[in-house]
């Protein structure tokens, strides 16, 4: 990549295909388009059709579809029908078009590396024998709504235009549209507009550019859409205009940043399974595509695209372990600081926040909302993993008061009688808080906010009890590591009694599974969902029970060929198109893979990973959020969701390779669980504190090469050893 | 009547202050922008009108949930409008449908940023201040979505 030829694109087309969604992202901005070269992307969304094409920045949809109406010699040139080639990488999309008039067009669309904008360069070449008048009408209609406000577009905008371009504002959001050369004229809602200040509805905002090309001549139009949350944008229109001066470097600099990042991340070699190897590379890039750093206060990964492109606390927690495996401990550290910065210090009913709770959503502004039962519980374990990868306890010391607040919050969520963690009612509290306010009220009657937040899983969902166990274990471990065990508040003690409850009260003898939940009165909720698999992964069940849970989960009523359903298709409430009542979710497939490896079933664990890999490869490095329960068709699905790729990566490292890192030693445990028939595999560049380890495995032997400053302690299932700095050591692989 | 409202307003001020102190004034400003957008972007204020055979109103965006809906219900001052008497005409759609014609197999998509008109027949057309409640069920996500507004029911031809 560094100075070499372009790597293979994610998508390469020789004809227009509007059904292929394309996503290109920077750290602030993103662009959504389709495989026909237009910034349109109509997608089924919650059962309806919505066009998601356009530019996004700061979690704000800046524009709706951004169309170019081109004519050459008076004849219209349609970008889609004239497309001869399209190549899409993570950092840019390039398309080429040829019109019958002899006009050749090359289009390049690149989000800026850090700045909140997207550059669109159009180059024209007249290949004919006579002069050609080319007219480009660029129509980018402002949208300007935060994506967290689902399906809402403002209808009043303030507009103004000057020599630098157009500035548009609405409800605290801002869009600047600039171009070089500037337009010959503009129209607003179909009428000529000289740029005077204007307030009202905007149906169309169009700039007209005209050029006369002599035979062989080349023309160029550079355009930028720039903006986001107004109070978080440095510079304004002048800065947007300044980006035009660096147009030649838009694509090279974006490409360079990606190349440097890829070079720092681990690589896999799976000669026995090229599909998994390809899917790893695509999933790695997909996670990186979600990185966001829109302002100095916010670092993290957005949940997905197109309609979840803000920070979601739950989703971030599922992604950070993969970020750590990819060697980006610094990004994980800043992400953790971001999420803890917005921990509620006291109840805020209007935001559905309880003291100690971590936010459900976070967008630049900053704007944040709370009100989930699970988000807060993920973070102690993520922090424990951070310590494992870095060996540093400084962040734990810094966040110690926040961890204590989590313990108090969790104590407050426990049923006084049973001691079990209670989920449900979070959104009802928000409704109570707002019912006296204003002349407009609205709400969603969601009774519950677990990871399946449209399903009613009250009152004691099984995976919440598992999460509580894992969180308490992590907090105890962290407290011990920093010598503060005695400072832990409340009942942050031995979680083993919850483990006993999982084995007894949650046991579902008829299904040899776990109940999905218990009501307050102890009545079991007999719903067969994949969530019970989390108890297996957490090691909370004895081996026989763990095996029976995995066996049951992989029967066809829950395990479809394209993934794992959220609810058995034999349940009376099953609906194949209901978000959490029957649809297949890739994260559930990853849970099943993780649990299968946890019981030592490498064959089925790998099979489940291959199910995910097949989707990632087929979707050109994107990964849908969910699919219908009755056929492998995305439905109501973001075309890329972080927790459809990140857990897949984590399972590859932690279960297939069986890697555990302890950077404090440093130490590396390797307990690979490759399926039968595999003969060799390698992983290179696993970061452990200040060094990196390469591991090569064959059925007979395993070698470790270490680049760190001191010795690396290596532990295999039946043997241990040491690898010196810059050295390679071999071990008998063994079972 | 005023006491609960006053209590709520004071609570809002206190919570706003808490947000500003805990997370900065920018947060308060950002939250205010989002709240204002949500408040103004759905029901088109002043669109509640007496029509020839009922009352009508307009929304500019779907309320909270985008996409297609398999059921619509509207209540006026707590009285549910019978489904055959409720009509919805999404912007861009060729014709209006009664709520009775809408189901899982025949859902209706509410467009974003485009006017959708509701017509409620055989309801009290006396101009007055009324409360309208709209309840929708998505084809994709089960929990019910509801939206309520209070506005003056204006006679035909009245100025805003």
Account of the 3D structure:
Helix content of chain A is 27%, strand content 32%. Chain A is built from 15 helices and 46 strands. The two termini of chain A are 39 Å apart. The mean pLDDT of chain A is 94. With 160 residues, chain B is of the alpha+beta class. Helix content of chain B is 24%, strand content 34%. Chain B has 2 helices and 10 strands, in the order ααββββββββββ. Chain B has helices spanning 2-23, 25-40; strands at 49-51, 54-59, 67-76, 79-80, 86-89, 97-98, 108-110, 116-121, 129-138, 145-152. In chain B, the strands form 2 sheets. Chain B has a 5-stranded antiparallel beta sheet with strand order 1-2-8-5-6, with no helix packed on it. In chain B, strands 3, 4, 7, 9 and 10 form a 5-stranded antiparallel beta sheet that branches. Chain B is globular. Classes of the chains: A alpha+beta (735), B alpha+beta (160). The interface between A and B is large, with 61 and 57 residues.
What's a concise summary of this model?
The complex is a heterodimer of chains A (735) and B (160). Chain A is α+β, with helices and mostly antiparallel strands.
Counting DSSP E segments of at least 2 residues, the number of strands of chain B comes to 10
The amount of helix of chain A comes to 25-40%
The global form of chain B is globular
The averaged pLDDT of chain A comes out at 94
Give the spatial strand order of the biggest sheet of chain B: 1-2-8-5-6
How does the major sheet of chain A shape up? 10 strands, antiparallel
């Amino acid at each position: 990549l560094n100075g070499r030829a372009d790597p293979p694109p994610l998508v390469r087309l020789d004809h227009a295909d509007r059904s292929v969604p394309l996503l290109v992202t920077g750290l602030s901005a993103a662009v959504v388009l389709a495989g026909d070269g237009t910034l349109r992307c109509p997608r089924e969304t919650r059962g309806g059709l919505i066009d998601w094409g356009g530019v996004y920045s700061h979690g704000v949809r800046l524009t709706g579809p951004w169309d170019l109406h081109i004519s050459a010699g008076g004849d219209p040139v349609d970008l889609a029908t004239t497309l001869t080639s399209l190549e899409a990488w993570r950092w840019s999309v390039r398309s080429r078009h040829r019109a019958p008039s002899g006009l050749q067009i090359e289009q390049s669309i690149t989000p800026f590396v850090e700045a909140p904008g997207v550059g669109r360069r159009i180059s024209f070449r007249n290949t004919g024998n006579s002069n050609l008048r080319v007219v480009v009408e660029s129509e980018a209609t402002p949208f300007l709504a935060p994506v967290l406000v689902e399906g809402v577009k403002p209808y009043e905008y303030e507009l103004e235009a000057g020599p630098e371009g157009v500035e548009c504002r609405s409800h605290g959001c801002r869009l600047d549209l600039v171009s070089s050369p500037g337009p010959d004229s503009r129209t607003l809602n179909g009428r000529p507009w000289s740029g005077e200040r204007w307030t009202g509805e905007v149906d169309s905002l169009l700039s007209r550019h005209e050029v006369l090309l002599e035979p062989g001549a080349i023309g160029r139009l550079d355009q930028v859409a720039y903006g986001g949350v107004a109070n978080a944008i440095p510079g304004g229109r002048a800065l947007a205009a300044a980006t035009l001066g660096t147009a030649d470097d838009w694509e090279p600099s974006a490409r360079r940043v990606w190349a440097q990042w890829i070079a720092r991340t681990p690589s896999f070699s799976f000669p026995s399974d090229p599909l998994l190897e390809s899917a790893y590379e695509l999933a790695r890039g997909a996670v990186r595509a979600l990185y966001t750093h829109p302002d100095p206060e916010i670092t993290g990964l957005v949940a997905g695209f197109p309609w979840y492109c803000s920070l979601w606390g739950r989703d971030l927690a599922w992604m950070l372990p993969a970020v750590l495996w990819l060697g980006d401990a610094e990004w994980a550290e800043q992400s953790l600081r971001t999420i803890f910065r917005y921990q509620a210090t006291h109840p805020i009913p209007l935001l559905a926040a309880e003291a100690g709770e971590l936010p459900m959503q976070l967008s630049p502004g900053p704007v944040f909302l709370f009100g989930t039962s699970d988000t807060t519980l993920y973070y102690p374990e993520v922090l424990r993993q951070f310590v494992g990868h870095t060996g540093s306890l400084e962040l734990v010391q810094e966040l110690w008061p926040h961890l204590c607040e989590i313990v108090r919050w969790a104590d407050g969520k426990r049923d006084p009688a049973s001691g079990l963690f209670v989920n449900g009612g979070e959104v009802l509290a928000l409704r109570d808080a707002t019912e006296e306010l204003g002349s407009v009220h609205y709400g969603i009657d969601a009774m519950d906010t677990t990871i399946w937040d449209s399903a009613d899983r009250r009152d004691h969902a099984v995976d919440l009890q598992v999460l509580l166990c894992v969180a308490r274990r992590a907090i105890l471990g962290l407290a011990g590591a920093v010598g503060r065990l005695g400072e832990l508040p409340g009942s942050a003690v031995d979680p083993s009694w919850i483990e006993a409850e999982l084995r007894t009260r949650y046991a579902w003898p008829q299904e040899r599974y776990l109940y999905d939940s218990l009501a307050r009165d102890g009545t079991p909720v007999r719903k067969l969902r994949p969530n019970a698999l989390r108890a297996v992964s957490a090691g909370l069940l004895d081996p026989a029970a763990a095996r029976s849970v995995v066996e049951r989960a992989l029967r066809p009523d829950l395990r479809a060929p394209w993934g794992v359903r959220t609810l058995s298709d034999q349940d009376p409430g099953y609906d194949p198109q209901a978000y959490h009542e029957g649809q297949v979710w890739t994260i559930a497939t990853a849970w099943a893979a993780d649990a299968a490896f946890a019981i030592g079933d490498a064959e089925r664990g790998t099979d489940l990973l291959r199910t995910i890999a097949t989707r990632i490869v087929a979707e050109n490095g994107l990964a849908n959020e969910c699919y219908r329960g009755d056929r492998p068709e995305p439905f109501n699905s973001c075309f890329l969701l972080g927790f459809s790729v990140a857990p897949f990566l984590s399972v590859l490292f932690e279960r297939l390779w069986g890697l555990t890192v302890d950077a404090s030693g440093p130490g590396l445990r390797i307990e690979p669980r490759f399926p039968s028939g595999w003969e060799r595999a390698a992983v290179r560049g696993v970061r452990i504190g200040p060094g990196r380890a390469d591991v090569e495995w064959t059925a007979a032997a395993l070698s470790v090469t270490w680049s760190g400053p001191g010795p690396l302690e290596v532990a295999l299932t039946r043997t241990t050893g040491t690898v010196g700095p810059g050295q390679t050591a071999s071990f008998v692989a063994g079972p | 009547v005023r006491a609960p409202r006053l209590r709520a307003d004071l609570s809002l001020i206190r919570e706003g202050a808490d947000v500003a102190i805990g997370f900065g004034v920018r947060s308060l400003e950002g939250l205010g922008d989002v709240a204002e957008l949500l408040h103004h972007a759905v029901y088109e204020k002043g669109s509640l009108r007496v029509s020839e055979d009922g009352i009508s109103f307009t929304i500019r965006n779907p309320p909270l949930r985008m996409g297609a809906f398999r059921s619509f219900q509207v209540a006026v001052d707590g009285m549910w409008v019978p489904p055959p008497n409720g009509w919805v005409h999404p912007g861009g759609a060729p014709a209006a449908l009664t709520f009775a014609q809408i189901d899982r197999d025949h859902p209706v998509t509410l467009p974003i940023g485009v006017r959708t008109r509701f017509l409620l027949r055989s309801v009290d057309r006396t101009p007055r201040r009324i409360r309208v409640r709209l309840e929708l069920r998505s084809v994709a996500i089960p929990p019910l979505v509801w939206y309520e507004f209070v506005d003056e029911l204006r006679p035909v031809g009245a100025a805003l």
